[in-house]
Amino acid sequence: MDKQRGVINQSTNSATIADVLERILDKGLVIAGDIKIKLVDIELLTIQIRLMIASVEKAKEMGMDWWITNKDFNSQSTTVQNADELEALKKRIEILESKK
C-alpha cells in the first residue's frame, strides 16, 4: 500500500500541436485588449486590439466574410472594379475625342 502512494500517476492523454490547432480553428479563439494612454485624466490615445483565430467555415458561420468583398484579398472583386474603371475611362475618352 505504501508503494502505491509513492507512485506518481502520469496522464496518458496528451494533445499534439495539431490537435490544439484543430480545436482552436473549429471552435474559434478571440483575444481582445485595450491600451489607453492618459495624462492628467485626459485621454491622449486609445488602441483597441481584437484578434480572432478561426477556420474560414467557422468565420462564415459567425457572419464574417470581409475577405470576399475586400479588393485587397479578393482578386475577382479587383478584376470587376478594374473592368468598371476601364469602361468609364473609355467613355470619357470617347466624349473628349468627340469634342475635337
UniProtKB/TrEMBL annotation:
It is found in: Gas vesicle. InterPro entries: Gas-vesicle_GvpA-like, GvpA, GvpA-like_CS. The keyword Flavoprotein does not apply. The keyword Calcium does not apply. Keywords: Gas vesicle. It comes from the Bacteria. One of its GO terms (molecular function) is structural molecule activity. Pfam families: Gas_vesicle (PF00741). One of its GO terms (cellular component) is vesicle membrane. Belongs to the gas vesicle GvpA family. This is Gas vesicle protein. It comes from Candidatus Jettenia caeni.
